Known about the structure:
alpha/beta; 7-stranded parallel β-sheet; two-stranded parallel sheet; 9 helices; binds nicotinamide-adenine-dinucleotide
Amino acid sequence: MSGNRILVTGGAGFIGSHLCERLLKNDDDVLCVDNYFTGRKANIAHLLHNSRFEIQRHDVTFPLYVEVDRIFNLACPASPIHYQHDPVQTTKTSVHGAINMLGLAKRVKARILQASTSEVYGDPDVHPQAEGYWGRVNPVGIRSCYDEGKRCAETLFFDYYRQHRTDIKVVRIFNTYGPRMHPNDGRVVSNFIVQALRGEDITIYGDGLQTRSFCYVDDLVEGILRMMDTEKGVTGPINLGNPVEFTMVQLAEKVIRLVGSRSRLVHKPLPQDDPRQRKPDIDLAQTKLDWSPKVALEDGLKETISYFRRELAL
Ligand SMILES: NC(=O)c1ccc[n+]([C@@H]2O[C@H](COP(=O)([O-])OP(=O)(O)OC[C@H]3O[C@@H](n4cnc5c(N)ncnc54)[C@H](O)[C@@H]3O)[C@@H](O)[C@H]2O)c1
């Protein structure tokens, strides 16, 4: 469906900017709302000439009054460095942000999608993680502001659904990468690429045998859009991610090869609460959305490396 009035919170961020771009291609009117905490105007500058695109500086912890048909709620810092910078604000962004956006959705009868996260599974004791797994989350650790904030946001979404019949959709996003990731966000893909491009040592936390799966941003955006287009009552939560696993050492070696770098691997202690394994079970996304990731890690990495090469002017 095209021609909708769409609000994207966190639209100037990494995933949000790709989402805005796709929505505009679909002839939708897009209102991008962001407080630029981690997002950047440069991420959306190329969209400003489009008369169907608008931006508004706004913090989602405050109410917003706009007329829209659909809301993609992405506002929230996503990397540990950023969400631990002001943990109280992080919880507020997830929880107050969800309340404000759900309140808006209820008022204007809009459909609303929440960008939740695989972090709701915490340090999982089942592998891979399916949506029915309730998670193993430390409520008082340094990651809790993000994990518990996102869990509470999910609760609010489902209570608005049960209590007010709000048309909700919840996706749980697993590690996503691609152009416009923040160069200093400390996330593994951007970290490795930036270190490799600068010829610096590549930092591996722990033995580097912990695994992650990486989803290219175009695949993720496709999954988010498909979820938004499902019929009312398909609420999720639905996992979106790439189930192909790589160890940190494998990822580092791939990046070094693609960059053509001389960087060496150095090991540092594991941060607190760092999960050993994280891999989505995407059966539900495959059946309900007919979605699975298409972009191979190597191809996605090449695009991301070109982006960082331009950004760092190397
Ligand atoms: N990138 C991933 O791997 C990943 C994984 C799981 C979930 N997610 C979720 O997807 C969403 C987007 O993540 P991203 O990777 O693009 O991160 P990002 O940091 O690039 O984007 C988040 C955006 O939200 C904005 N923002 C933060 N607090 C805000 C507030 N109070 N009011 C308004 N705007 C605010 C930031 O300025 C930024 O533009 C987040 O909700 C994140 O939790 C991302």
